[in-house]
């Protein structure tokens, strides 16, 4: 029988899609190199090649996997139930915990991992702690169509938010997107692969500024540019109710 989301997350501990060894600033260290129970195995890592991945995506995946060999880059695992934050952390910071009803959260899935294989968001992220840089290799499937033959702008915004957001979480822990600005320069062909390069620009108090570009694999086409502002949440006792 499936256990509740909260119970599963309590078991799982730290967010599993983050680089090994990562921990939220100020939080206790995550348990190192735990053995996996059968329950954890149930949760499949989607940030690995599957039959829907085209040649470009596989090639780039292999290139970045090679960069991981010396430890300068890390591949981030990605799960359908890959909540960005531990429930405990989130409840500490969330504005109004009454919105986190267990019967709803138990059905929750990460938006970008809610499509059948190959139809939606196929992606993998790699992070360099040295360079404070995140790269997302993304293939947008046929169910993300906007203008005929091209990706929906909302789908591009989603993968940009997810990539920059992941970078912000690694930098600042419990954060939310406060602002996302995207310039769409060229339409992205459906089912093509793009490379999203994002970098940490600056941190000012609770504010984390991240920018990114969305380019073709050969880097000849700049599809979009974006800037994001993430705000580190404060513990709820310090936050005005909304
Ligand atoms: C696998 C996992 C993937 C992980 C990545 C997931 C990525 C997806 C992330 C999301 O999509 S989050 C969902 C979309 N975002 C939201 O729903 C957030 C809604 N907004 C809020 O909850 C609050 O406005 C927010 C938490 C962002 C800020 O509220 P606070 O009360 O904590 O902060 P406050 O308003 O005091 O502002 C703090 C600072 O940020 C600044 N600020 C806040 N919002 C801003 C804004 N929109 N533009 C510019 N500055 C802003 C504000 O001026 C101030 O600057 P100073 O410190 O210099 O005074």
TrEMBL record:
<dbReference type="GO" id="GO:0005758">
    <property type="term" value="C:mitochondrial intermembrane space"/>
</dbReference>
<keyword id="KW-0963">Cytoplasm</keyword>
<keyword id="KW-1003">Cell membrane</keyword>
<keyword id="KW-0378">Hydrolase</keyword>
<keyword id="KW-0276">Fatty acid metabolism</keyword>
<keyword id="KW-0999">Mitochondrion inner membrane</keyword>
<dbReference type="GO" id="GO:0006915">
    <property type="term" value="P:apoptotic process"/>
</dbReference>
<keyword id="KW-0809">Transit peptide</keyword>
<dbReference type="GO" id="GO:0006631">
    <property type="term" value="P:fatty acid metabolic process"/>
</dbReference>
<keyword id="KW-0443">Lipid metabolism</keyword>
<dbReference type="GO" id="GO:0052816">
    <property type="term" value="F:long-chain fatty acyl-CoA hydrolase activity"/>
</dbReference>
<dbReference type="GO" id="GO:0005743">
    <property type="term" value="C:mitochondrial inner membrane"/>
</dbReference>
<comment type="similarity">
    <text>Belongs to the THEM4/THEM5 thioesterase family.</text>
</comment>
<dbReference type="GO" id="GO:0032587">
    <property type="term" value="C:ruffle membrane"/>
</dbReference>
<keyword id="KW-0966">Cell projection</keyword>
<feature type="domain" description="Thioesterase">
    <location>
        <begin position="149"/>
        <end position="221"/>
    </location>
</feature>
<keyword id="KW-0053">Apoptosis</keyword>
<protein>
    <recommendedName>
        <fullName>Acyl-coenzyme A thioesterase THEM4</fullName>
        <ecNumber>3.1.2.2</ecNumber>
    </recommendedName>
</protein>
<keyword id="KW-0496">Mitochondrion</keyword>
<dbReference type="InterPro" id="IPR052365">
    <property type="entry name" value="THEM4/THEM5_acyl-CoA_thioest"/>
</dbReference>
<dbReference type="InterPro" id="IPR006683">
    <property type="entry name" value="Thioestr_dom"/>
</dbReference>
<dbReference type="Pfam" id="PF03061">
    <property type="entry name" value="4HBT"/>
</dbReference>
<dbReference type="InterPro" id="IPR029069">
    <property type="entry name" value="HotDog_dom_sf"/>
</dbReference>
<keyword id="KW-0472">Membrane</keyword>
